[in-house]
Write a structure and sequence with these properties.
By secondary structure, the chain is α/β, with parallel strands linked by helices. About 35% of the residues lie in helices and about 20% in strands. α4 links the parallel β4 and β5.
């Protein structure tokens, strides 16, 4: 199918839904769509929401092979230089290898649209995701049905207003917040996602009811900065603690929390969510253990604050597994700064790490710290040391849980030759489910060494 090339200015107008743009050629065969996500769980959730809307409103089925698709949706990521490069490479590959209409959205499309100037794509930024189906359907000539959630959209709602039911057969993702107000010196997310915005309480609860009715036994609350949930809509009257309690009152599922920013996260908040039904698993992006580097990053907390959060988490959630994000090689990071990071994440509450070598993001203050950039080999060595430490901590944590009881959600994955289904404990340990287990079941198990899937991260 031949596609009409667009200029850069036309692409920007397309993001506003300008009907003056030329149409793609109409197809006689039914359209089919393939989704490709780069980056975070929030991106994955939004990709699924868009694909689900295409199905509901356009009758467009998704396919697992891009070669079978007439539309390819790429949800890009700009959090690091590597993720930006992967986004660009993916788009070029799809444009070269297929005849599909390639639609590019996400953070690279928002902050660096010039990355795709040489590609024949429909380019839509994050701000256009809520209208993406309408825009693309108009461009490719797909009729729209009225099967939409938009007529029930409350004031202040953020995309999406319908929670997709297909992102996982076992756990559901539920977006409750978007954007960030923190403006850390290394981070491009505020430019890519905008300010912090919350999904209205009534919409979150109705989405959760739909997911529970569909049979999901676990709901993962996702967003850019969950800690700030509700601030923009309700001030201090209603926040994450209140929302978690309201969701637990609905019953029928457990709650898992995605990344929790330590900027604004307090021991009071941890105490407020320490209820049965909340998974013993947190992910906290600490980024550094050096107070000097944290100040340069604009992180607005100290290493002592993090230790207090770790200590209190272990008291409130016995057996908790905490994941931590760490940036290595931030401009000016000395060997002493790095050792302080190692000391911090050696805390027994930390079960694993996500390690990110510093990546200068265009337009951020840290990108201008040229004279303090760390030698690449030093950054690589430090990152590898932390990844090795992460492997040790992950195994040590899992071994510490042998003999304990855990709630296990059975997944669709299978283990090796046995064909037995794999499950995930509430404190984020993959285990082999008992014989006869069914996908989607929530089981109580006493963990043994043979139950644990040691090779799965």
């Amino acid at each position: 199918m031949k596609k009409t090339r667009r200029s850069k200015s036309s692409v920007k107008e397309c993001g506003r839904g300008d009907d003056s743009l030329p149409q793609f050629q109409k197809r006689m065969k039914p359209h089919r769509i393939y989704g490709h996500t780069l980056g975070c769980r929030l991106n994955a959730f939004e990709t699924e929401a868009i694909l689900d809307e295409f199905r509901r409103r356009c009758g467009v089925d998704r396919v697992s092979d891009p070669g079978d698709a007439s539309i390819i949706l790429v949800n890009s990521c700009a959090v690091t230089g590597r993720s930006t490069a992967r986004s660009r490479k993916s788009v070029r590959s799809f444009c070269r290898r297929t005849d599909a209409v390639v639609v590019v959205t996400g953070c690279v499309a928002e902050v660096m649209p010039e990355e795709f100037d040489d590609q024949d794509v429909i380019l839509l930024p994050n701000t256009a995701k809520k209208d993406l189906v309408d825009i693309v359907a108009g461009r490719v000539g797909i009729p729209l049905s009225s099967n939409s959630c938009k007529h029930t959209e409350p004031t202040g709602a953020i995309f999406p207003v319908c929670a997709p039911l297909i992102i996982s057969r076992t756990r559901a993702f539920l977006k409750i917040q978007d954007g960030c107000d923190n403006h850390c010196t290394y981070c491009i997310v505020p430019a890519a996602r905008g300010p912090s915005r919350s999904q209205p309480r009534e919409l979150v609860l109705s989405q959760a009811e739909s997911l529970a009715s569909a049979g999901f036994m676990e709901i993962l609350l996702t967003g850019v900065d969950l800690v700030r949930y509700g601030k923009d809509l309700y001030g201090d009257d209603y926040g994450l603690v209140h929302l978690v309690r309201d969701l637990l009152e609905k019953g029928g599922f457990r709650i898992r929390l995605s990344s929790m920013e330590p900027i604004g996260l307090s021991t009071d908040m941890l105490e407020g969510i320490a209820y049965p039904g909340v998974c013993r698993h947190l992910h906290i992006p600490v980024q550094s253990g050096s107070d000097r580097i944290l100040e340069k990053m604009g992180r607005m907390y100290s290493s002592d604050d993090i230790i207090e959060l770790f200590d209190r988490s272990m008291e409130l959630f016995p057996g908790i597994g905490i994941g931590a994000d760490v940036i290595v090689g931030f401009p000016g990071e000395t060997e002493n700064d790095f050792r302080k990071t190692v000391d911090l994440i050696s805390h027994p509450a930390v079960a694993y790490l996500h390690v990110f070598p510093f990546s200068a993001r265009p337009g951020t203050p840290a990108a201008s710290m040229h004279s303090e950039m760390i030698h690449t080999e030093t950054v690589t060595d430090r990152a590898e040391f932390l990844r090795s430490l992460s492997r040790e901590k992950r195994n040590r944590f899992r071994r510490s849980q042998i003999g304990t009881d855990a709630l296990v959600l059975v997944e669709s994955r299978t283990e090796g030759d046995s064909g037995r289904l794999i499950g995930m404990t509430d404190n984020y340990i993959p285990v082999i489910s008992p014989p006869g287990s069914r996908e989607g079941e929530l089981l109580k198990m006493t963990l043994t060494e043979r139950d644990i899937c040691w090779d799965i991260r």
